[in-house]
Write a structure and sequence with these properties.
Layout lengths: L1 E10 L2 E11 L4 E5 L6 H9 L6 E6 L2 E2 L2 H4 L2 E4 L11 H12 L3 H10 L15 H13 L5 E5 L7 H16 L3 E5 L3 H6 L3 E6 L2 E6 L1 H5 L4 E6 L8 H4 L2 E4 L2 E6 L2 H10 L6 E5 L3 H12 L1
Parallel strand pairs: 3-8, 3-9, 6-7, 7-8
Antiparallel strand pairs: 1-2, 1-4, 4-5, 9-10, 11-13, 11-14, 12-13
This protein binds adenosine-5'-triphosphate.
Adenosine-5'-triphosphate binds next to strand 2 and helix 1.
Length: about 290
Amino acid sequence: MLQVEGLRKRYGGRLALDGFDLTVEPGEIAGLIGHNGAGKTTFVEVVTGLVRPDSGLVLVGGRSAGRAARAKIGYAPQELALYPSLTVRENMRLFAALAGAGKRAITDLAAQLQLSDCLDTPTGLLSGGQRRRTQAATAMIGDPPLLLLDEPTAGADPQTRGALLDAVRARAEAGAAVVYTTHYLPELVDLDATLAVARAGRVVARGTRHELTRDLPGELRVAFDGPRELPAPLRERARTVDGEFRITTADAPADLGSLLAAGLMPVTVDVRRPDLDDLYRSLETVDA
Ligand SMILES: Nc1ncnc2c1ncn2[C@@H]1O[C@H](COP(=O)(O)OP(=O)(O)OP(=O)(O)O)[C@@H](O)[C@H]1O
């Protein structure tokens, strides 16, 4: 549904996009992550047609940028773009008219995003989280086959965050391709999203959570029934927290084997697998 190849965009002396590639299939939620300034928002703005790239290819449903491609896109920008003096319903109506959706779609979507009680409130009077959800609703109305959501849950409380994630999941289950930008990594686990990691204007890692984290080190956590000294190679990779040794490891069974071989029998053993936070941290190390 979305095919992007080799996007480049320069702002003055700064290269915001430097060969950005991303393909997203129908029904897929692609979590786009990366540090501030990695180019995520610029990428989304190029796909929507708001920003013109210097070079590169953007195809939406097989069509290059233009009116036909734009009609397939639902977009919730990071900087909210709602009419503050208009109510939630009126804002949704505007976007519904553009998308050719009816009144029913407005009430259904408002219910799904827990906005029913504020449909007649001007968006300028809403809380930050309510505004975010209204923005998401304007993106989702009319069931566009490509959804671009740029940090849609910033400022949302856990309950409304849950409602938004459910709505995103439902759109993907109905066949939409979703690009979901966030700094809040647990959401991408909840959404069972594939991942695209952006750095310095390009996607440097792309795949499932499992594919991207399996080669990262995990942690072997062991505790003993009294003070113990770890063998030297393990000690260099270990820290202690609450009397427990936490050993950074790429091979937990082998490290446990060396403990046992040294005559050290733990009373508790736990293995923590690498997760998205570790993936993020590994990128920080590379950036430094
Ligand atoms: N309109 C603009 N004019 C000049 N520079 C810009 C403009 N928009 C973005 N940039 C620069 O391009 C780079 C990429 O910015 P972008 O907003 O795309 O990153 P991001 O990954 O979305 O960051 P964040 O996580 O902070 O939202 C940054 O160095 C930014 O300063």
